[in-house]
């Protein structure tokens, strides 16, 4: 009832935009930094010492590393997908005809590193995002 009253005295105007981010603020560095976090969490997971058997401390560390790794892999994918879908234009694809495949492969790697502990793949994920980032910066010139 309060919401209806407020809507009558302060009507809400619908606002729309053509993309997820205001124009000119696209930047792949956040995706790359998130991928670096995936690399580091994978390193920490691989460094865990299981020699003394299970413990609350070990379980806590593992849970935190896995949660951070999965969260940052998703963030990196989301960030690069926004750039792919909202920033890159047909003229960029003319200059970089394999861009769709690069983004698709990077996102597949992101999915893989979310659910696996594989340092080589985590580094490959970061490198793939860096390559897309280089293409992005070339198109900004």
Describe this protein's structure.
With 141 residues, this protein is mainly α. The chain has one domain: Nickel-containing superoxide dismutase (Four Helix Bundle (Hemerythrin (Met), subunit A)), CATH 1.20.120. The protein contains six helices and no strands. It has helices at 2-9, 29-47, 56-87, 90-95, 99-115, 119-140. α2 (29-47) packs antiparallel against α3, α2 (29-47) runs antiparallel to α6 (119-140) and α3 (56-87) packs antiparallel against α5. The protein is flat. The chain starts with a helix and ends with a helix. The mean pLDDT is 90.
CATH class: Mainly Alpha
The CATH topology, please? Four Helix Bundle (Hemerythrin (Met), subunit A)
What is the CATH superfamily classification? Nickel-containing superoxide dismutase
Strand/helix succession = HHHHHH
How far apart are the termini? 54 Å
Total number of distinct structural domains? 1
Question: How is the quaternary structure best described?
Answer: single chain
Show unreliable segments: none
Briefly note the structural class of the backbone.
mainly alpha
Please indicate the percent range of residues in DSSP E strands (runs of 2 or more): under 5%
Radius of gyration from CA coordinates: 20 Å
Categorize the overall geometry. flat
What is the helix tally?
A: 6
Give the overall pLDDT as a whole number.
90
Number of extended strands: 0
Approximately how much helix is present in the residues?
Answer: over 70%
Known CATH architecture: Up-down Bundle
- Biggest sheet character: none
